[in-house]
Amino acid sequence: DAGVIQSPRHEVTEMGQEVTLRCKPISGHDYLFWYRQTMMRGLELLIYFNNNVPIDDSGMPEDRFSAKMPNASFSTLKIQPSEPRDSAVYFCASSFWPAGELFFGEGSRLTVL
Amino acid sequence: AQRVTQPEKLLSVFKGAPVELKCNYSYSGSPELFWYVQYSRQRLQLLLRHISRESIKGFTADLNKGETSFHLKKPFAQEEDSAMYYCALIRGSTLGRLYFGRGTQLTVWP
User: Fold this and answer.
1) Would you state the torsion angle of the CA atoms of residues A21, A25, A29, A32, taken in this order, to the nearest 10 degrees?
2) Nearest residue on chain B to A100, judged by CA atoms?
3) What is the mean pLDDT of residues A6-24?
4) Which of A54, B16, B23, B36 is the most exposed place for a label (fewest CB within 10 A)?
5) What is the reported pLDDT for B51?
6) B98, B99, B101 ranked by CB distance to A102: nearest
7) Is residue B41 within 8 angstroms of chain A, CB to CB?
8) Contact (Cβ atoms closer than 8 angstroms) between residue A84 and residue A75
């Protein structure tokens, strides 16, 4: 297994544009997590899914952010419209159970100009 | 509220010296605690968790509920231990929500 796969690895966009980040979890993992990493706030959980259903989205900063998981092998995190303060590394992770080991992707580095 | 505190952003030791990465948490219940590590150009990965009581790559961590600490220790550091280390906590009431500390960058000099 190639592990958790994220795309794109790097994204540079202009303020106001829509950004879509993608994640493919490890096959068989029922839990998928989206984290954001910034210098100011460290690693923060944005949202997590169990069996494709969002369980806790209290970390989603505002309505500009949305996440979906249409099936067990794919999830997206969308920012519309993007702002410079959204610049961060976004990590996707998956696991067998909610308190288990998280397997992280390589991250998507977003820069909003 | 900061639930996991790693007081040192940077820590440097020489090869063969003991190393301790500090982690304190704030939670009155029974937490599950973890150490994650990110080596250069690699993914963030689990190093150890307190319920396993294992020694991984020579590292150990003991949960001290009285001091609410979960410090990571290794008696003899190696150059390949240089990495970013994150302490993390799950509260029993919010499974799935893993709280991370800000991380400590460990550098082991030859």
Assistant:
1) -10
2) B96
3) 97
4) B16
5) 79
6) B98
7) no
8) no
Q: Give CA–CA dist B17/B36, Å, rounded.
A: 21
Per DSSP, the three-state class of B81 is helix
**Residues facing A74 on adjacent strands:** A71
Choose, out of A51, A55, A102, A108, the residue to mutate when testing the contact with B (most B CBs < 10 Å). Answer: A102
Q: Which amino acid, residue A112? A: V
What is the SS3 assignment for A86? helix
d(CA A92, CA A95): 11
Structure confidence at residue A62 (pLDDT): 84
Q: Give tens-digit pLDDT for A102-111.
A: 999 999 999 9
HSE-CB at B45 with a 13 A cutoff on CA atoms is: 11
Structure tokens at A3: 């592990």
- CB A100, CB A35: distance < 8 Å: no
pLDDT surpassing 60 at residue B74? yes
pLDDT digits over A51-104, tens only?
999 998 989 988 999 999 999 999 999 999 999 999 999 999 999 877 778 999
CA distances from A7 to A22, A94, B8 (A): 5, 15, 32
CB contact under 8 A, A101 and B49: yes
